[in-house]
Task: structure prediction
Amino acid sequence: MKTIFFIGHHKVGSTSLQDFLSRNSVALARSGILYPSVDFESMALMLATAMGKYIPQLEVLPINAREPHNALAFRMLAEQGKGKVPAYHKGLPSSHQMLRAIRQQIDFLAPHTVILAAEVFANFAPAAPGQITRLAEAFGDGELTVVATLRRIDDYLASWHGQRLKFGHDLAPLRAGGMQNYFGSIHFNYRLMLEGWVEAMPNARLILRDYSDVRRAGGSVADFVAQTGLDLPSGLLDEQKTNESLHRGIYEIVRRGNKALRPAQAGKLRQTLRDLTPDMNLPASGDIELFGAQNRQIMQDRFESIHAYLGKISGKSPFFEDQSEVRQTRPIPEMEVFELALDQACKHKKAFVDPEIKDFLDSLKVNSRAEI
Result:
């Protein structure tokens, strides 16, 4: 049996891959490829799909069914005292029961390939390396493959920072302290993310992919299939784009809203801004400078040894062919776009139903040049 671990990174199409595998889990299982469930909800949904009582292309899947191995990873970390299971993963059993459930599916379905896909696995090496060993022992009786997709560091940090803003986190801007907060984590130190997997699974095939190459190959699903050599059955449901990023032009409004507003109001602000973004005349996200020239130089210098490590373990040097572009500032400063986005948000102020949010936008307009 072949076991494939997709370990992330975050913001590289991981959710789209998980969603594709979930929606097609019954058809895949029939062909010998198991994307296993871990809890009662996802098993019940898989059974209902197999019986024709649930049509997975028509609805947003429950998160325990769509991202079962994120649920497993969160539970494994929480049981080691490394964080809590997020509230949106409800009613989870213990990790022992989850792993036993996977083994039972393997025993009864006898797949030739098992896929465990979770960007949360990226947190294991620094937080709970013993859990990687646990997975290796549970599924290491056959051929192992570890797949990871990585983004060039400036592009990744900009996207991950936006993801955290989308979840309501109170953050410093990347241009002023926010970038430095990531240096000691897997969100900057890719070696920290990968080394534990390499050491715990020394005989595994390691596939490292540059996100730029993944996009050129057709996206996370197409690239994953091509790189792992999966022979997919015909008639599968198409990939659906999920977990859309915030436009970088609204980052600063969202950031200040997360800081100043109550959580419920900040959430309404974020959602309304996301809805309005297509009608706001903003420059392309990739043209907006979030770091500043000095921070970009610091980022490039600190990442140099990490980049060398990626080249060594991947056999591809340089790993990021465009790594030198980390130093290049983008043409439009973030605060310039902030002023533009704020003007347009205020022009659409009727869309912000909550009076507290309208008052916030008014005060932001008055104090827009103040650093908060």
Summary: The mean pLDDT is 95. Residues 248-366 form one domain.
